[in-house]
Specification:
Elements (H helix, E strand, L loop, with lengths): L2 H29 L1 H4 L11 H25 L6 H29 L5 H10 L8 H28 L4 H27 L21 H6 L5 H8 L27 E7 L13 H7 L3 E3 L2 E2 L5 H10 L6 H7 L4 H8 L3 E6 L28 H18 L6 E7 L34 H28 L5 E7 L4 E2 L7 E2 L6 H4 L3 E4 L6 E3 L3 E2 L3 H7 L27 E4 L4 E5 L2 E6 L3 E5 L13 H10 L6
Parallel strand pairs: 1-5, 1-6, 2-10, 3-11, 4-5
Antiparallel strand pairs: 2-9, 6-9, 7-8, 12-13, 13-14, 14-15
């Protein structure tokens, strides 16, 4: 190929691919119109219209851009060959978006590895593949093929027009993208519910947020937005049918206090008399659940599952709609006094917009130079609350300790576990690293937290309030120290027991102490509190996929667990993970790969229904 011919190919192919990009941005936006039908626009919310339009163009334009990027590496090819190759990513993407719209219309979640697997192995178990469905699918496929052919024809013609029209198309797309992202960032920082509530309806959509930047520059005042959000007359926008039915409460003469004590990153096997002696002693008066799973391997999903009782896959919808859990709404309706204390900031993850969205005068950050100092501070604050609170009102307390997560403890503290690391150097961690000193530092921090928890338990005992208080002591997730020799450290990276199996103690003044070995999870906590102390008469399925922990003859259930970017299913000796990109990974509980899953399709279908039952 001569140099002049190569230069000509580069010029024509590059212009043609950009023409195809703009045309497919329009095509994908049109295919994705069914997503818009699920977006509620409240009366008077005029900004919703340009936001939805600009996001539709901006997002699907980005998808088209991603489809075109691989082709840019091949623009030196002969024109016909280049165009045949370049169009393939657009065809695949158009088909996937079309299929996803149908899956979303029926189940209100987007395509994932589990759906692909069921469609391949037993499609009629998730979608009824009747002759009419096949006919409609054929018509849609035929229409897609013709639409893509049309974009190719138009691109061939457009390339012969003036460059300014191409630049105009790119400018319109980029303007839509910028407008939609800045609108979302502005509205989200102001605690607006309407604009952010649309986010989860679009596939692969992660909108821009800039809360701290906007506040630091004086453009928003988050506390004012937070206060407005807690007002009774505040207009609430929800993305979910959660609960499915209005909550019905029986009149109960006794409304006990409820206290949740959560230790960040507490391993199940470090709940013992050596590491946490005060909690372990208190456990002799409590129900101790030995096979308890968090709803995730991260703080975000662990706390979410603890309060909401629904799978982590609903997080995006809850966060964008800033919807508080039914449990907290019920506590508010029963006039519970709130005492919420987080050593770690409660706005990251945004629990101030979700779990505690309805709590007035919420303390979002706690002063202190170290996690240990902040843990000391929240303990003192709660003890002061107990001293000054109104004894005629029940209270809900939440203590979130962070020292173990930060492996922090006072320098003057007696350390029972030695030798220990003076500081944690993550760069030294590898598959051959001996974790003993690291683990000892972690255990010393747990020992310190246990001392603080002991102060609270002693105060409740001394004041006589223990007999009118239900206490939950648990963790948001575990902490791994390369347990399975796969070079995993910390949390948020897999769903093996080291990261999702957590301690769980439940003290109930009217229940005898016991040890339970049946598998339970954080998804069971909300229905337990709703049924027992709060006297909610609804069927549990109206607001949770979990079960009352006091239910007899519980069956071993598969549990949906989540993280920041993926989610999985844990059951038996198996972990099934849905990875970004739509593929599934199957391992045993020690993360050894398995060729195929043992979980029946009917169980997987049931769990997929759990992931869609509360979707609007």
């Amino acid at each position: 190929m001569s140099f002049s011919k190569l230069r000509e190919n580069l010029r024509f192919n590059s212009r043609w691919i950009f023409c195809l990009l703009i045309l497919n941005a329009v095509l994908l936006s049109a295919i994705g119109i069914p997503y818009v039908s699920w977006m509620d626009i409240p009366e008077g919310s005029w900004l919703s219209y340009p936001y939805i339009f600009s996001t539709q163009i901006g997002l699907f334009g980005l998808m088209a851009l991603l489809c075109s990027l691989p082709s840019l590496l091949l623009i030196w090819l002969p024109t016909r060959l280049f165009r045949c190759i370049a169009v393939l990513p657009f065809i695949v993407t158009a088909i996937l978006v079309a299929v996803d719209t149908q899956v979303y219309n029926q189940y209100r979640f987007h395509l994932n590895g589990f759906v692909f697997e069921l469609l391949i192995q037993g499609g009629d178990q998730i979608i009824d593949v009747s002759w009419f469905t096949l006919l409609v699918g054929g018509v849609v496929a035929f229409g897609l093929i013709n639409a893509i052919i049309m974009t190719i024809v138009l691109a061939n013609r457009w390339i012969e027009t003036k460059k300014r029209y191409l630049l105009l198309g790119i400018t319109v797309w980029f303007s839509c993208l910028v407008f939609s992202q800045f609108t979302h960032a502005w509205k989200y920082a102001n605690f607006d519910q309407v604009i952010p509530s649309y986010s989860h309806h679009w596939p692969l959509y992660l909108p821009l947020t800039a809360n701290d930047y906007l506040e630091d520059n004086g453009w928003v005042e988050q506390q004012a937005g937070r206060d407005a959000h807690t007002k009774i007359d505040h207009q609430k926008v929800t993305n979910l049918n959660y609960p499915l039915k209005p909550i019905q409460q029986a009149e109960n003469a006794k409304t006990p206090n409820i206290l949740m004590i959560v230790l960040d990153a507490w391993r199940f096997d470090d709940a013992n008399v050596q590491v946490t002696p005060n909690i372990e002693q208190f456990g002799q008066r409590s129900l101790v659940f030995k096979e308890h799973l968090s709803g995730g391997n991260s703080t975000q999903m662990g706390i979410f599952s603890l309060f909401y009782g629904i799978p982590s896959t609903y997080w995006d919808a809850v966060r964008s709609g800033q919807q508080q859990p039914v449990l907290m709404e019920t506590l508010h309706s029963k006039n519970y006094e709130m005492s919420i204390h987080g050593s770690a900031p409660l706005h990251s993850p945004p629990f101030d917009r979700t779990v505690f969205a309805g709590v007035k005068d919420l303390t979002v950050t706690t002063p202190g130079n170290t996690p240990a100092e902040r843990d000391r501070k929240i303990t003192d604050d709660f003890l002061q609350f107990l001293e000054k609170r109104d004894p005629n009102k029940p209270y809900f307390g939440f203590m979130f300790y962070d020292a173990a997560h930060g492996t922090s403890f006072p320098a003057e503290m007696e350390t029972p576990f030695t030798p220990y690391w003076d500081r944690v150097d993550h760069v030294k961690l590898n598959n051959d690293f001996d974790p003993t000193e690291y683990r000892n530092r972690y255990r010393n921090s747990l020992y310190y937290i246990d001392k603080l928890v002991g102060e609270i338990l002693d105060e409740l005992e001394a004041s006589g309030e223990l007999e009118n208080t239900i206490i939950v002591i648990t963790s948001d997730h575990g902490e791994e120290f390369n347990d399975y020799k796969k070079n995993y450290w910390g949390h948020g990276s897999n769903y093996a027991p080291a990261q999702v199996h957590v301690p769980f103690y439940l003290y109930h003044p009217e229940k005898e102490a016991d040890i339970i070995h049946t598998r339970t999870s954080h998804l069971d906590v909300a229905p337990t509190l709703m049924k027992q102390p709060l006297s909610v008469s609804n069927d549990v399925r109206d607001y949770s996929v979990g079960e009352d922990l006091f239910t007899t003859n519980r069956q071993e259930n598969w549990v949906i667990v989540g993280s920041y970017m993926d989610y999985g299913i844990v059951g038996g000796n198996e972990i099934i993970v849905n990875r970004p990109g739509g593929y599934t990974e199957i391992t045993d509980l020690k993360l050894n790969k398995k060729a195929e899953r043992t979980m029946p399709n009917r169980e997987l279908t049931k769990l997929l229904q759990q992931m869609s039952v509360y979707a609007k």
